Amino acid sequence: MTPTLTLAADVDHVDVGDRVTIHGTLTNTGTGTGTGTRVCRQQLVGTRWHAERCTKTNAGRFSFVLRPGARGVLRTRVVVAATTSHYAAASPTVRIRVR
User: Fold this and answer.
1) 22 domain-assigned
2) Residue 31 pLDDT more than 90?
């Protein structure tokens, strides 16, 4: 089974140091509601994805609070690792402009 991850930010641009929340859902895990499944946020740096933080889902939902420290475009996604009941998956990339 291939899980489905969604991801969205509450705003598409912020000032340096401001808070922005990204949130999403995890479905099709093969384990019911997806409660307690570990999802990890990654940030694109150059051409490579770097692990940032992980959290566990609650009824298939999750969120992260970010506070960007530099200007530019923050590109982030969420991934879930493969288990015996489902394949690995990644969310679409979310772009946040930081001014």
Assistant:
1) yes
2) no
